[in-house]
Write a structure and sequence with these properties.
The protein is of the alpha+beta class and about 170 residues long. Helix content is about 25%, strand content about 35%. The protein is built from 4 helices and 9 strands, in the order βααβββαβαββββ. Helix 1 packs antiparallel against helix 2. The longest helix has 15 residues. The radius of gyration is 15 Å and the shape is globular. About 35% of the residues are buried.
Length: about 170
Amino acid sequence: MIIREEAKEDFGQIYDLVKVAFETAKVSNGKEQDYVNQLRNSENYIPELALVAEENGKLIGQIMLTKMPIINGEIKHETLLLGPISVVLELRNKGIGSQLIKESFRRAKQLKYGSVVLVGDPAYYHRFGFRPSVDFNIKYAHFIPDENVMACELIPNALQGVSGTFCC
């Protein structure tokens, strides 16, 4: 398996991969594949942090980190949003998602990003250093239970003194 940046010729496969992956997700609105395209077409897109896992020429996973401001009045603090992340059903629970997260974090640190936020399953994301974002005085703009809104410091104390709200 190799992990690499997504390429234009991957976009159709990524769309299908995300759509199928979220058909079996615990929580899904059925539009995650469209959200990927929306993020890719926004000013928040970071090509170096849109990654795919490939095995024998087939895409088996994807992850995307995009810029996301934490807003407190006039103050904006730049962070990254993790999501979505997808792995083909037949290869789940084999560490592919973990490898994608670790590699995306490694690359994000190289690009000098200090933190990541997400909405997801705490049972999965805590192992990567995510904590409830309310621990950092960071809230999500829409109603989602606090335990599902998380933040992680890629660089120690990157969120010290930061507070506010983010929205996907």
